[in-house]
Queue: 2 jobs
Job 1
Amino acid sequence: MRKVGAIVKQLPDAVRVEWANSLKGWPQEKATELDKAGLPASQVLKLALEEAEKLGHKWPVRYQVK
């Protein structure tokens, strides 16, 4: 993004963890909502989290999806 002119700011790890913790229930909440609508949201979210981790991504807080 910087290459095309975006200003990117890095947040301290403590702020990233605090923010991630504040949202920790939201991914499951939304996935459950979409599952009830007939979409495989929980399955897709779990797969996306796992694949990102396989590629080396480190989450400040690892969201749990059922």
Job 2
Amino acid sequence: MTITVFLADDHAVVRDGLRFLLEAQPDIRVIGDANNGRKTVELVEQLCPDVVVMDIAMPELNGIEATQKICAACSDSQVIILSMYSTDEHILRALQAGARGYLLKESAGIEVVNAVRAVHTKHRYLSQKLSEKMIDDYCRVLESTRPQDPLALLSPREREVLVLVVEGKSSAEVAATLSLSIKTVNTYRSRLMHKLGISNLPGLVKFAIQHGLIQIE
């Protein structure tokens, strides 16, 4: 049985490398790719691949938000997050969003192949040789001890506006992307800044970097 895979990464060289690696396997076929989170969700909903390999830091819609949308729309598609972040917060948020696997980019390679096969059979896969039992224990401990995630204060639409704003898009550009009025975008922006206790754009950018919504190239 062939495992169908969709690749989501904003760097073409990464997508090409993953495609080459995966298609060298007789039981895996890459059926599509995208360079931003919003397009990934649209295409995955159309193609319904068995597995989605998703970069955590995607433009327009980050990998965590995209994973939530994919899991809600295509329950049979299993998501593997590919990330440069190894912090407790990032791993927990990915698993809570519905991801079945979490790979560090530094450990990518044959692990990607192993992860694709594992999540396709409904198993979890985490980098650094952590077993499924360890992952479950890890999640329970983190859930009971972690501080409140400030992103939980924001609605899904407010998070979308936040990502687009910190990427440098104007209110008009955000409005066009989300099919909203400029007035509505400005309302969302003011509301999310109030919820986060942040009063300026540099503060929003710093917050987004700290919480893995965007990354510095």
